[in-house]
Design brief:
Blueprint lengths: L1 E7 L4 H12 L4 E7 L4 E6 L4 H15 L4 E2 L1
Antiparallel strand pairs: 1-3, 1-4, 2-3
Length: 71
């Protein structure tokens, strides 16, 4: 399943790359793409574990980029 999340306050392309690497390491995430210019996160995830994975995505985002908001 592909999940797209809009974000705000993603500060720079370096932050996006760091966030992309961190999200890609989450168990159940097949691939992660973070677009600085588009302010979007696109994830290929295991649909059966959607809630668990999304909770981990929120945690990782807060840790890597504290000022960023998920919409």
């Amino acid at each position: 399943m592909t999940k797209t999340i809009k974000v705000s306050n993603l500060d720079c392309a370096n932050c996006a790359a760091k966030l992309e690497r961190a999200l890609g390491k989450i168990d159940g995430v097949g691939s992660a793409s973070v677009g600085f210019l588009t302010q979007k996160i696109t994830l290929d995830i295991d649909e059966a574990r959607l809630d668990e994975i999304m909770n981990e995505v929120k945690r990782v985002c807060k840790k890597v980029e504290p000022d960023m908001k998920l919409m």
